[in-house]
Amino acid sequence: MAPAGPRQGARPGRARRADGAHGDDGARRRGGARRDEGGAPSRAGGWPGARPADLEPFELAGARDGGSGGLDDETGVLLLHGLTATPYSVREWGEFLAAAGLTVRCPLLPGHGTRWQDLASVGWRDWYDAVDDAFEDLRRGHARVFVMGLSMGGTLVLRLAEERGAQVAGVVTVNPSLGSDRWATRLVPLAGRVVRSVRSSPRGGRLYGRYSDIKAPGVRDVGYDEVPLRAFASLRELWAVTVPDLHRIVCPVLTFRSVVDHVVEPSSGRRLLAGVTSAPVTERLLPDSYHVATLDNDRETIFQGSVEFVQALAPVPATAARAGVARVTVAPGPAMAVEPDA
Question: Where is this region: Disordered (predicted)?
Answer without folding.
Answer: 1-54
